[in-house]
């Protein structure tokens, strides 16, 4: 997405499997004067992009993004956890169960891509010597039947193939998607945090202050002023017509 040079922009990075469309739509409704520029990055590049100022904020996988770069003084907010799944061929024996455990994977061979979207301290099964460059490459190799791969469920859906499926691994570490930005926090960053957290546009922490409620006396005065302006009642201080002649 490109933005004309004369239009201010808020640059937001996002990683594969993350869908910021809903938040982008709300931003467009609230901040029409600042374009939201979406920048697709891999997890390894997010920290560096934030540090160098190429983007103001990133929606990425934590803490994986921080393992690939030091952003110095930074802030993070965890948004949600992702279920870890094993991607397997459709005819694999593991598809007999709706859910599996790490122990069920002890006899399997695994691919561990270099971008490693899931950090597993005690890796199950046996690792294949070859390490694919990306998760997408690893999933392509799963289709050949040489090994399985563990990924966040969103990536399994992103790289869906008709000959593959996946099963949740209920005791595997979960991945966390969150926001990453550098210090200091700006008004635009705070605005996006509010959108992601569901803060209303009239929130006291948002751009617009809530309208103060009027007292009954103030409401009555406003109503009278409106009627006077319409000529329905005499203004304050006007003589009341009685139909009688004035006394001399």
UniProtKB/TrEMBL annotation:
Chain positions covered by the region annotation Disordered: 199-248
Amino acid composition bias (Basic and acidic residues), ranges on this chain: 206-230
Compositionally biased intervals (Basic residues): 237-248
InterPro entries: LysR_subst-bd
Superkingdom per UniProt: Bacteria
Residues in LysR substrate-binding domain copies: 25-197
Gene Ontology cellular-component terms listed: protein-DNA complex
Keyword terms: Activator, DNA-binding, Transcription, Transcription regulation
GO molecular function: DNA binding; DNA-binding transcription factor activity
A family per Pfam: LysR_substrate
Xref: PANTHER family: HCA OPERON TRANSCRIPTIONAL ACTIVATOR HCAR, TRANSCRIPTIONAL DUAL REGULATOR HCAR-RELATED
Sequence similarity: Belongs to the LysR transcriptional regulatory family.
Protein name as catalogued: LysR substrate-binding domain-containing protein
Organism whose genome encodes this protein: Gordonia insulae
Higher taxonomy: Bacteria, Bacillati, Actinomycetota, Actinomycetes, Mycobacteriales
């Amino acid at each position: 997405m490109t933005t004309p040079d004369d239009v201010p922009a808020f640059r937001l990075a996002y990683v594969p499997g993350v869908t910021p469309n809903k938040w982008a739509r709300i931003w467009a409704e609230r901040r029409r004067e600042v374009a939201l520029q979406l920048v697709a990055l891999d997890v390894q590049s997010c920290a560096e992009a934030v540090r160098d100022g190429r983007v103001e904020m990133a929606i990425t996988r934590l803490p994986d993004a921080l393992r690939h770069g030091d952003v110095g003084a930074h802030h993070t907010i965890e948004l949600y956890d992702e279920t870890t799944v094993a991607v397997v061929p459709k005819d694999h024996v593991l598809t007999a169960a709706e859910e599996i455990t790490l122990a069920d994977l002890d006899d399997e061979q695994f691919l561990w891509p270099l971008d490693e979207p899931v950090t597993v301290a005690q890796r199950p099964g046996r690792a294949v010597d070859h390490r694919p460059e990306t998760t997408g490459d690893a999933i392509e190799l799963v289709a050949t039947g040489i090994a399985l791969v563990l990924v966040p469920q969103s990536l399994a859906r992103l790289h869906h193939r008709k000959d593959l499926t996946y099963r949740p691994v209920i005791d595997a570490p979960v991945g966390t998607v969150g926001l990453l930005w550098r210090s200091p926090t700006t008004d635009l960053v705070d605005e996006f945090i509010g959108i992601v957290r569901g803060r209303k546009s009239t929130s006291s922490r948002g751009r617009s202050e809530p309208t103060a409620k009027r007292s009954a006396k103030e409401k009555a005065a406003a109503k009278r002023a409106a009627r006077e302006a319409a000529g329905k009642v005499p203004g304050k201080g006007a003589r009341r017509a009685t139909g009688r002649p004035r006394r001399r």
